[in-house]
Amino acid sequence: MSDQNIQHLPAEELYQKELNALITAERDPVPAGWRMSPRSVRTYICGGRAGDTLITPKYIGDQRLVEIAIATLVTDRALLLIGEPGTAKSWLSEHLCAAINGDSTQVIQGTAGTTEEQIKYSWNYAMLIAQGPSPAAMLKSPVYRAMETGTIARFEEISRCAGEVQDALISLLSEKRVSVPELGIEVPARKGFSIIATANTRDKGVNEMSAALKRRFNIVVLPAPATLEEEMDIVKSRVEQLAGSLDLNAQLPADEVVEKVCTVFRELRSGQTLDASQKLKTPTGVLSTAEAISLLAGSMALAGSFGNGTVADEDLAAGLQGAVVKDEDKDGLAWKEYLENIMRKRGKQWAGLYAACRELNR
Question: What is the pLDDT of residue 204?
Fold first, then answer.
């Protein structure tokens, strides 16, 4: 299958040219199991140059947090990225693995149904019954494979797993080896092994991590974008990347369109206008940066499929209505008050969006 037919390419394939340029230009010591030095990983994440190649920034935010995350992975401690939804935790973990190992696909997706077997190993039961326990019948988890190869495994949404399932990691992170009693073996972790876990702070269904497990991680808190301009930069960058991989058949949203979406999201998220002059009701949903990116991609799809290819107020309004109003009773009132008390009074530049939103909100 050609790359053009794959919906989501891993970071190491999307940015292969940049990664190769950094490896070629490497001048600093490279830790065991890594493909490049910590300085080069920082350049890949935060942007810069490698010889004649421009390295695009993958994470827009506090560079010191990125440095702390990279330095953690040089040590024998695992890394836990914590923050609100949409603060680029998964995005950063994927790119860290792409730069360090060239493989970001060793992933466990945490859910309420995740089991301890998915963290350690399980069995092909047909082979197990026919032949008994054997290496060929074993199904290795991403963590097991990372320990064998001295690479990094990703554990997404770890706090969605039940507490007893989370704690299956304690022995793996403490002893740096996995025991397989059925085969009478222990597999030690090779140098370079680590885990990058992510956890949301606001989603429903979150299970508190035990103190014992937290002690095995170095915790880095990723904040929401500090300013409107920073959030706009993130949104524009990600929407452009999405548009390149999807057949949206529309122009990228103008800066003023992105600014409107980010303004609405930041104000409703914080419960006050940007100038702090007026308090607002906050909706029940999490109006994250990731949701703003998704909203604009959806608006582009509407414009490309049913409009003239330029994102119009009607396209934005449809996305905003769905993003804000998750609970009709609670969110409907908050959204209606925002439209009448804030958006309606912002003058000509917002008049079209206000009219389109009001039409949908009847």
Answer: 60
